[in-house]
Design brief:
seven-stranded parallel beta sheet, P-loop_NTPase, disordered C terminus, 15% strand, Rossmann fold
C-alpha cells in the first residue's frame, strides 16, 4: 500500500466490507485487530512495528507511538518491551536487533535526533497524556530546549507541516518531533479511544497509520455523535486461541439464568 486511497481499496478487497474513516483522518490506514482479552495483544503489537516498517513505511528506523489505557498498563508494557528476556522485547529485536529504543513520554522529552536516526523508537504513553488539559500533556506541546537539534536544517517544504511559533520557526516540542516522523500508532484497548477528542488528538500528531487492538471494537457508526466504527481487519475468537494453546489465562464460560424464569 502506498497511500490512503490504496489502504481503503485494500481493506475493501480483503474484507468485502466498506472502509470507515473518521473525518479528522481522511484516507489514513486505520484498521483494527479484534483479539480476546488474554490473547497476546502486546506480543502481536510488537510484531506490528516491524511489519509496518517493512511492508508499509519501508524504513529501517520507524517511530511508533504506542497508546495504552492506563499508567499501570503503560508501566507493564514498557517493562516487557525493555526486558531482553521477554517475548515482547524479542519480537522487536528479531527485526531491529539492538537498534531499539523504548521510551516513556518523560524519556521522549529528552531523546535526541540521533536516537531517532539510529534506532526504531517506540514511545509508550496514554492517550490522556496527549491532551493539553493534562499536566503531562502540556509538556508534549511546550517548547523544549532539549529537542532543538531535531529542527536544524529542515527544508522549507517541511515547515507548513509543523506548529510554528510567533517567530515563524517550528516550536521545539515533542509534538513537532512526532509530526516530523509521522509515527505508526498502535492503540491498545482501542474501544476507549474512539471519540471526537481522541480523533482530533491523533490527527494533530500526523500519524502514518493506526492499528487498533481490542476485544470489543466499535461496530456501528453514528456520525451525528462523532462515533465511527472500527475497521476490523481480522477477528480471532477465544476458542480459536485456546485450540492453538495461545490463551494466557483459562477462559471459563458460565451460563446465566434467564431472568424471566426466576
Amino acid at each position: 500500500m502506498s497511500g490512503g486511497s490504496d489502504a481503503v481499496a485494500a481493506f475493501a478487497a480483503t474484507t468485502r466490507r466498506p472502509y470507515v474513516e473518521p473525518p479528522q483522518l481522511p484516507g489514513l490506514p486505520y484498521v483494527c485487530l479484534r483479539v480476546p482479552t488474554g490473547g497476546g495483544k502486546t506480543f502481536m503489537a510488537a510484531h506490528t512495528v516491524a511489519i509496518a516498517a517493512d511492508a508499509f513505511l519501508r524504513v529501517e528506523n520507524p517511530v511508533a507511538l504506542w497508546l495504552v489505557p492506563s499508567q499501570a498498563i503503560r508501566d507493564q508494557t514498557v517493562k516487557t518491551l525493555k526486558d531482553r528476556e521477554h517475548p515482547n522485547s524479542g519480537a522487536l529485536r528479531d527485526r531491529f536487533g539492538d537498534n531499539v529504543r523504548v521510551m516513556t513520554l518523560a524519556e521522549a522529552l529528552y531523546a535526541k535526533r540521533a536516537d531517532y536516526d539510529g534506532s526504531a523508537c517506540i514511545i509508550v504513553a496514554t492517550i490522556q497524556a496527549f491532551r493539553v488539559e493534562d499536566k503531562e500533556g502540556r509538556k508534549v506541546y511546550d517548547a523544549n530546549g532539549e529537542l532543538m537539534d531535531h529542527f536544524t536544517g529542515l527544508s522549507a517544504a517541511v515547515l507548513p507541516l509543523l506548529r510554528l511559533g510567533p517567530s515563524g520557526s517550528p516550536v521545539p516540542s515533542l509534538e513537532n518531533v512526532l509530526r516530523l516522523h509521522r509515527p505508526a500508532v498502535i492503540v491498545d484497548e482501542a474501544h476507549n479511544v474512539r471519540g471526537p477528542l481522541s480523533f482530533d488528538t491523533l490527527a494533530g500528531l500526523r500519524p502514518s497509520m493506526i492499528v487498533e487492538y481490542t476485544a470489543t471494537p466499535v461496530l456501528e457508526s453514528i456520525p451525528a455523535k462523532g462515533v465511527f466504527a472500527s475497521n476490523v481487519l481480522h477477528h480471532v475468537t477465544a476458542a480459536e486461541l485456546k485450540a492453538e494453546e495461545m490463551v494466557k489465562l483459562p477462559i471459563v464460560l458460565r451460563g446465566r439464568p434467564d431472568p424471566r424464569c426466576v
